[in-house]
User: Fold this.
Amino acid sequence: MSRRRRYVVPGAEQGMQSFKADVMKREGYAVNPSRPDDVKYEVARDLGVPLKPGDNGELSTGSAGKVGGKIGGSMVREMIRLAQERLANRDEP
Assistant:
């Protein structure tokens, strides 16, 4: 069953998808800007996880977590880096 996230801030989805595409490009993945969510299949392949479009009911939660963790972890690290950079620039005279 596909899950559809809803963002609290209207219009945030497009920004987050763009951010994901930028981060994953920097990680070395080929990202289609019009379909940034598809990068999960490339990540899964690199990790040896048999993720495919459609039903993945046979996929273990651990395997799914490896894929999501790789993508989400990269995004969180980049958000922290950006926040630290902004804080450092704010403190400069």
In short: The mean pLDDT is 89.
